[in-house]
Specification:
about 350 residues, alpha+beta, 7-stranded mixed sheet, two-stranded antiparallel ribbon, 12 helices, 9 strands, binds 3,4-dihydroxyphenylalanine
Amino acid sequence: MDLAQLTSDLDALAVETAAAIGAAPDIAALETIEVEVLGKKGRLTGVLRGIGALPVEDRPKVGAVANRVRTAIEGAITGRREVLGSAELDARLRAEVVDVTTPGRPIRRGSLHPSLESMAEIARIFGQFGFVVYESPEIENDLTNFQLLNIPPDHPARDLWDTLYLDVPGHLLRTHTSPGQIHVMRTVKPPIRALLPGRCFRYEAIDASHGTEFFQVEGLMVDEGTTLGDLRGLLDEFAHAMFGAGKRTRFRPGYYPFTEPSVAFDVECLVCGGVGCPACGRSGWMTILGAGMVHPVVLRNGGLDPERYQGFAFGMGPERISMLRHGINDIRLFLENDLRFLGQFR
Ligand code: DAH
C-alpha cells in the first residue's frame, strides 16, 4: 500500500458515495449509506486502516485527503437529507390534505314537543298582557285540589275529576292546575296576573281525546274592579293571536265550582269557518277553554277580601290547542314519543 494507491481509493470512495447519495430514494436509504461509509466499521475507516503501512511523513497527507472526503460526504448527506425531507413532507401534506370545502354532515336538529311549543306560545301571548309564569306542585291533597276550590267532599262536581290517589295518605296527583290559584293568591299580593302551566293526571279510560297525563295552563287575574268584560277582551286577543286575527269568539254558560259565573270560550272553527263540519261537530265552534269570575269563597281561601278584590280565571289544554292548530286528531300521539310525529313541529 502506498500513498498514491490510498489517495486514489479515497477519491474513488468519494465519487462512488456521492453518486449513491444522489440516488438515495428516501431518508432510510440515505442513513444506510451514512452508516456503510462513515460508520465505525464503515468503508472510510476501512480504507484508513491501510495508513499504518505508510511511511510516517506520508500519513498526514492521507489524513488530509481523508478529512476532505469525509467533509464532502457529510456535506452531500446533509444536502440530500434536506431535499428528501422536504419531498417527504410535501408527500405527506398532499396525502393528508383536508378539503375544507367539503359539506359537513348535517346535524339532526331537535324540536320542541308540541305540548311545550303550545305552552310557550300561550305564555308568549299572555306575557304581552303582563301575565307571569308560576310553577305549582304536581302532588296536592284533597284540600288544595278540591276543597279550597269550593269543591267539598261528596260534591257531585267531583265526578268531573277522576282522581289518582298516591299511597302516601292524603296525597293525590293534581287533576288540574287550578290549585295553583290558591298557591299564587297566598303568595303574591294583587294585582295578580298569573299563568300556571303544568302536568295534570286523571284516572281516565284512554281514547283519542282523553289521556291520563296531559298539560293544562291556568290563568288568574285578581285586582280591584276586574270584570267579566276584561276576561272576554283578553280571551279575544288570545284567540286572535293563537288562531288568526278576526276569528269570531263566543262565551257559552258553563259550570265550575270555583268560578261564578262560569263560561266556556269558543272560537270559530278553523276548518269550516263557521259553516259546520265534522271537525267541530258541525256547530261551527271549537271550545278552547273554561273560565269564569273567581268565586268569592275561592278568593277568601286565597286570603283575599272578595269585597275588595275581583278576579277571573281560565284553564285550557295545550294539547287540545295544538290539535286544533295542527289538525291532530288523537291526543295519544302526544305521549307516544314517535319521532315521525314529533319531528313535524319545528
Ligand atoms: N280546572 C278546570 C278543569 O280542569 C279548568 C278550568 C275551568 C280552570 C274554569 C279555570 C276555570 O280556572 O276558571 O276542567
